[in-house]
Structures are given as C-alpha cells and as structure tokens.
Fold this protein.
Amino acid sequence: MSDELKWFKSSYSGPEGDACVEVALDWRKSTYSDDEGSNCVEIAPCPTAIHVRDSKLSPETGPHLTVPAPAWSAFLAYATRSR
C-alpha cells in the first residue's frame, strides 16, 4: 500500500481551471488482509461515503466500490454481530 494520497479534482471544479478543488483518498489496508498479497481489501473513508477496493489491482485504473456512510455502518454492525 502506498503512503501517498490519491488526489483527484472535485466534480464542482470548472473545466477551465478556475474554482478547482482537489480532494484525496487515504487508503487503508484491512487488518484481515495478509502480507503475501492475497485477500487484500483497502478502504478510504470520507465524510459521506466509504470507498472499497482490491489492492491487488492497479490503484489508478482498478475499480472500486463507493458505499454511503450509513450503509457502511449498517454493514459493519451486521458483520460484527455475525461473527
């Protein structure tokens, strides 16, 4: 996992370069992931959403899932109860 943040331009920024705001995702590897490169799940929490990705795929081009924060909280509550 990279220690660098992934910066991207906000959808509210203008195409002409004015009113540009960039935000960054701070990806964190799951404690359930192993060090051999398999079972690697990373999340990047934001105030309104949680981003989830498979860290074995390219961080720049690989897909990721965006989950609303309340749905993520419900998922964690369910997963904790189901252990």
In short: The chain has a mean pLDDT of 75.
